[in-house]
Amino acid sequence: MFHRLKNDLWRIFALLTVATVFLLGATPLALRVGEPAFAPWGMFGGLMLYGVALSHALRRLMFPYVDLKAIAAEARRSATGAGLVFVGVCIILATFLMMSSSLVHASELPVNAKLYLPVLKAEQTTWWSTMPAPATLAAQVEQETCASLKSRMCWSPRAELRTSRERGVGLGQITKTDRFDALGELRASSGAALAGWSWDSASLYDPALQLRGLVLKDLQGWRASLGSATEADRLAFSYAAYNGGIGGVLSDRRLCAGTLGCDPGRWFGNVEHTSLKRKTAAAGYGQSFFAVNRSYVENVLIVRRAKYDSEF
């Protein structure tokens, strides 16, 4: 009995260890190989292994005297018993498949995304056909508009945020403050592409113009992110620029260049840690502008992306 308990504890410990490695290592490994989309699947694998460890522990607590190994060995002595063992293994495998299915189900597309994804794909193809990871554009819309995937304003052209500091509108939350007008600046730099899009007309809520503006603004950030070590780093700089401004990213990279051991061509593990952005919580946001900017990049490139990969 003691020997079996010792083996069980080691088995549970091993499962928990591997699960933790999956969860903590999925993102760094995905970024190292240049495929951020792999990260969510590593996390899912870790969660499934936690479930296996928990089920094993519960089985031992509820049925401490049942030795499945001995039962299986005895069952295999007859054709019927071997068949029952086979059926049991199939049930276990089916359970794992159901767990996987539930994880996929949890990543279903928001209702409005099904309406506007074709528009986003059309705008991306027209204005940035060489975009290396178009699914991240969809993840960006989700990041900008979805308080939750079931919220009414998730993927809605009418999504709007107002604070004492700014106003953000639409699928890309184009922003206006007392200091700058992102819509006006983008329209001025994009020529005829955004002609007619304005704050004081119904065109403000045009989904095609909103998504065109999002794609063109991301493209500006991409073009300003020269000297990036990888495409993933360049995308990270681009999305950091969308959220916090190109000037802010360039400033962060200069600060990194002057920091011992920091590579200004790499976002992850380097520039993401160097910034002059305020690190104290801002009124109306619940966190600092530094934290908002850094989490924005991670959410777009890693956390929210996987569900859209098959759409592009």
Largest sheet: 3 strands, antiparallel
- In percent, how helical is the residue content? 55-70%
Number of strands: 3
- Which topology of the largest domain does CATH recognise? Lysozyme
The number of domains: 2
Large-scale geometry: elongated
Radius of gyration: 25 Å
Strand content: under 5%
- Tell me the number of helical segments per DSSP (H or I, 4 or more residues long): 11
Could you give the order of strands across the largest sheet?
A: 1-2-3
CATH class of the largest domain: Mainly Alpha
What does this structure look like?
The protein is mainly alpha-helical and 312 residues long. It has 2 domains: 2-106, no CATH class; 111-311, Orthogonal Bundle (Lysozyme), CATH 1.10.530.10. The protein has helices spanning 2-32, 38-62, 68-75, 79-106, 111-127, 135-145, 182-190, 207-223, 231-244, 246-257, 289-303; strands spanning 160-162, 166-169, 174-177. The protein has a 3-stranded antiparallel sheet with strand order 1-2-3. Helix 6 (135-145) crosses helix 11.
Notable traits:
312 residues; 2 domains; elongated; mainly alpha; 4% strand; three-stranded antiparallel sheet; 60% helix; Lysozyme
How does the SSE layout of this entry go?
Layout lengths: L1 H31 L5 H25 L5 H8 L3 H28 L4 H17 L7 H11 L14 E3 L3 E4 L4 E4 L4 H9 L16 H17 L7 H14 L1 H12 L31 H15 L9
Antiparallel strand pairs: 1-2, 2-3
Helix pairs in contact: 1-2, 5-8, 6-11, 8-9, 9-10, 9-11
